[in-house]
Amino acid sequence: MHCALYDTGRCRSCQWLKTPYPAQLSHKQSYLETLMTPFDVAEWRQPQPSDQQGFRNKAKMVVSGSVERPLLGIMHGDGRTVDLCECPLYPASFAPVFASLKPFIARAGLTPYNVARRRGELKYILLTESRDSGAMMLRFVLRSTLKLAQLRSALPWLREQLPHINVISVNIQPVHMAILEGEEEIFLSDEQVLAERLNQVPLWMRPGSFFQTNPSVAATLYASARDWLADLPIHTMWDLFCGVGGFGLHCATPEMSLTGIEINAKAISCARRSAHELGLDKVRFTALDSAAFATGKEQAPDLVLVNPPRRGIGAELCRWLDNHAPRWILYSSCQAESLAKDLSRLERYKISRVQLFDMFPHSSHFEVLVLLTLS
């Protein structure tokens, strides 16, 4: 992938960009195999590659510059700002949105927030695209509601320019810190959720709920989880740290009893909507802490699926799983080091299968799917 931003030294976020992509995959696989050396892996699946550019479905842009000439991109630690509207990681469909947003910022009088001076209103632009329909969700992160009326007044012009933006909202983030968003969300559109569909499974995205940034590889990850479990006699299943329900909804069958747990209530509302649309009557999604839910139970289901944040599932949940012994654990990890630590705690399990999914090309990050079977 060629990137003028990288070549001129303005952005080095893609630290592995000059490494040929096959070598990137090889490095990641070798590193994963090194981490897994202490364990006996019955089967290694081939790594799942990604498109090398245009694969992202979302942009998180720091807004800087002036109201007349805003920049959308990143801010370096020394205060330097870089416009990333031409970043090749974004699909071509993002360019006209960025092009319309810049004059809109001026029309609405949304002064970019100046970190050093602690002045201005517009902090971030957050853009998400549905790869299924091409519809988009646009969020303005503001310091306060001071410019909200001006934004509303200018919005008809933007909607005329970009009719495919279905969800528009304002997030209020008043804190002078590197925090992406605040707790208050104000919708400026009738629609409040963005529809997506992966492998014919309907999924929904709300502001603030987690969704994978690489939908093509995410679709392969979910499909692989479904295929790995298809021949197992699973009647009961937990989907912990379930987000909007991508894993559980792919793996559930009409006969299976599935409980999905996620602390983010917005994500849970999306998961429930998908389950209803699929007609899955035995699926229940609840907004709770996943570890607290599991460790408070006396009995385990046939299978526990976990998709934790980077820190992993931790010692307490590992101890509960090892003691209560579900027949299978399906572990999806976005941090291989915490995965290895958790696997070392699950002493009663053997590793039946492992596969790497390259969700983040040109960087050292990747995701891993592991199937564990009770010994």
Automatic annotation (TrEMBL):
Protein name: 23S rRNA (uracil(747)-C(5))-methyltransferase RlmC
GO molecular function, one term: iron ion binding
Residues given in the record as [4Fe-4S] cluster binding sites: 3, 11, 14, 87
EC numbers on record: 2.1.1.189
HAMAP family: 23SrRNA_methyltr_RlmC (MF_01012)
UniProt KW rRNA processing keyword: yes
Top-level taxonomy: Bacteria, Pseudomonadati, Pseudomonadota, Gammaproteobacteria, Enterobacterales
An individual GO BP term: rRNA base methylation
Catalytic reaction equation(s): uridine(747) in 23S rRNA + S-adenosyl-L-methionine = 5-methyluridine(747) in 23S rRNA + S-adenosyl-L-homocysteine + H(+)
InterPro entries per the UniProt record, alphabetical: 23SrRNA_MeTrfase_RlmC (IPR011825), MeTrfase_TrmA_AS (IPR030390), MeTrfase_TrmA_CS (IPR030391), SAM-dependent_MTases_sf (IPR029063), U5_MeTrfase_fam (IPR010280)
Entry binding sites for S-adenosyl-L-methionine: 212, 241, 262, 307
